Amino acid sequence: MAPSVRLSPATRSLFDEPLAITVQGLGPRQQVTLRTSLQDETGELFQACARYQAGDNGELDLARCPALPGGSFSGLEPMGLLWALQPQKPFRRLVKRDVQTPFVLQLEVFEGHGEPPRRLLAQAQHERVFLRDGVRRVPVREGRIRATLFLPPGSGPFPGVIDLYGTGGGLPEYRACLLANYGFAVLALAFYSYEDLPKEMKEFHLEYFEEAVNYMLRHTQVKGPGIGLLGISKGGDLCISMASFLKGITATALINSSVANVGAVLCYKDVTIPPLGADAKRINVNKSGIADIVDVLNNPLEEPDCQSFIPLEKAECHFLFVVGQDDHNWKSEFFAVEGSKRLQAHGKEKPEIICYPGAGHYIEPPFFPMCAASMHLLVGKPVVWGGEPKAHCEAQVDAWRQIQAFFRKHLTGKPSGTSSKL
Q: Which residues are marked as active site?
């Protein structure tokens, strides 16, 4: 029989759920190369390939057969063809711009291990979707708020979370909607460089974020009495500021966050927190022109930069710090440890800190390929984000589970338990 690709789920799956890949109808111990391709909405192509040898029965099951050396990865990696996807042009990061459409994954099986690939033996297409059936996407333009609310199927109310990204600006929705698939009401909140919001990161007013918190607390589909915050990078320190000054925050999960205010002045009523100082001379640029900025920021424990340390001891919530120990954007582990010390010194609960060796800065939902380097808006050149692809992928899978369990525990009082049917 002719070779064929069998996928499970067969035609479509959530982006953050595993995909089982099997090739049938090959010759006994036949050598083949598998290649995956995916185009983002701007037309950028991402690809991965791996070399395999079929079993004695002519079947190749990626959950049982290790990839041989010479491809994008080697060893037993059932999801390697997804997490190893790399841009064909340098410094591109895979993001989802329109969560209402799927990414279409192309899978091809080629004869042998040659470069370039030889005869095409079989191929298949698969949709990786972001919205589970029944999840509602609601654009929010209320007062100054510029956001999108994702509501799970059912009558609710649901535990509520506000989701913030970093210095890229705009309104990324993909993490918020993936989280909503698991029973959370999630508000993806823009805070600059979107519609009529400020174009640049110069000054942020917490009153804007307070509007968003109050919107969630009042919403009939949001289960009180408090809500959760989820932030990565600059979004993380904004979440810490929100938790420190605003009422109604029960749980705050931070991914590679600073505990000092970074990049812009922060104002709330009569309080002003200056940004942490930085020294561009500490940027280390390699021969390829890629910058390592891990040492650029000043130490917030030293004067005059102590003023930028966010007073997180004022917060009345539970904290979770997710840390990539190879983060090259800034010293995330140092920030998490210092945040923990500050909380405990003021008699507050010790935060949960989960450290992932080999994980870089952009810890995304599962199976987003690791971005080793891309353009940094504030630096004006490509920077290295850190991470080792396999370890980074494993960190993303575990962190996603830990974040959901953290919110479920503190926003619903129930232990974790997720369903992943479409």
A: 233, 327, 361
First to last CA, the chain: 32
pLDDT, residue 415, reads 58
Identify whether the C-beta of residue 163 lies closer than 8 Å to the C-beta of residue 373: no
Pairing label, strands 203-205, 265-268: parallel
Identify the pLDDT of residue 422.
40
So what's the pLDDT on residue 288?
86
Strand order from edge to edge, sheet including 20-24? 4-8, 20-24, 60-61
Report d(CA 104, CA 176) in Å as an integer: 20
Q: What is the pLDDT of residue 301?
A: 98
Cα–Cα distance for residue pair 357/188, rounded to 1 Å: 28
Q: Parallel, antiparallel, or unpaired: how do β-strands 318-324 and 249-255 relate?
A: parallel
For residue 416, give the DSSP letter: -
E strand map for 270-337: 271-273, 284-285, 291-292, 318-324
Tell me the domains of the chain and their CATH numbers: 4-129 (2.60.40.2240), 136-412 (3.40.50.1820)
Q: How many Cβ atoms are within 10 Å of 348's Cβ, its own excluded?
A: 18
Cα separation, 74 vs 328, whole angstroms = 25
Whole-number pLDDT of residue 419: 40
Q: Which residues of the chain have pLDDT under 70?
A: 414-422
What pLDDT is attached to residue 117?
Answer: 82
pLDDT for 290: 94
Q: What pLDDT is recorded for position 1?
A: 82
Residue 9 has a CB neighbour count (10 Å cut-off) of: 16
Using DSSP's 3-state secondary structure scheme, residue 80 falls into helix
CA distance 270 to 268: 6
Single out the residue of 399, 405, 91 nearest to residue 256, CA to CA.
399
Report yes or no: 191 and 205 within 8 Å, Cβ to Cβ: no
Alpha helices, H only, 219-275: 234-245
pLDDT of residue 114: 87
* Cβ–Cβ under 8 Å, residues 257 and 335: yes
Smallest CA-to-CA distance from 140 within 200, 211, 49 is with 211
Q: What is the pLDDT of residue 421?
A: 40
